[in-house]
Structure formats: C-alpha cells, structure tokens
Fold this protein.
Amino acid sequence: MEVFLKPNAILRFFIIAMLLFFAYSGNGNAADKKEESVSAPTVDELVAEALGKSPAVEAVRSRVAASRELIEPASALPDPEIEFSLEENIRSLSSPVFAKGEIMLKQAFPYPGKRPALEKTAGAESEMEYAGLIDIERQVTREVRAIYAGLYALDSETLIL
C-alpha cells in the first residue's frame, strides 16, 4: 500500500508546484502593465450600502410597516356576532309550533372615546417603532464610520512607513 501512495504524493506535489508557478509567474512584463487605480468607495456609499443590506435594519423596517398598518384597525368596531338557536317541542309532534328558531345579531359598541384612544395608542406605538428604526440606523452608521476611520488610519500609517 505504501508503495502506491508514494508516487501519488509525488504527483500531487508536482501538480501543486506547477499550478503555483504558473499562478505567480505571469509573463514577465510587470513593468509594462499599467496599474489600474481603484478608487475606494466613500464613507457615505458604504453607509448607504450597509443600511440597505443590514438584516437588523430590514427587520425594524418591517416592524414599522406592520405597526403603521395596525393604526386604522385599532379604532374599528369589534366584529359583529350572529347567533342561531332552535327549540323543539317533543311532547306534541303534531302541534304547529313543533320547532321554533331564533336568529340574533349582536354588535358591541365600546364606551364613547375609547376608539379614538385606541387609535392614538396604536399611532404612538408606531412612532416608538419608527424611533427604534432611527436608532438602529444611527448605530449602523456609527459602526461603519468607526470601521472606515480605523481603516483610513491604518492606510495612513502604512503610507508613512
């Protein structure tokens, strides 16, 4: 078994060495190649991208949208109820009043002033969610700017050295 593994190991080493040689060798005209200047993105572009792709910001945005959708239904009347009852007279099957049915419709009306108060409460909760969105956006912005400042300082130190 060891006899067969040794040529395979040598072959693998040779293939890896050739791949590394070709990857790093190039054509020898490195001085002729123009360096492409890649401009770094501005901090505002990075902040905009972070705010657009952050899962935390997206989660809070969806909570704000959901809380805004709950403002109008908060002041709506409760659902109406319908009730059906059936009474049977078992003693007299031949009587004309053998079965009697009732249908009842109910609608609850809250105490006056309660519906506008519920709407204001839902609006205030929506404003609190929006304030949370502003807070998380500011945190993300602060973190991106702090990381950008650290990279800028590191680049400045590298240029000096």
The chain is about 65% helix and 10% strand. Helices lie at 2-25, 43-53, 55-69, 71-74, 114-160. The first strand starts at residue 81 and ends at 88.
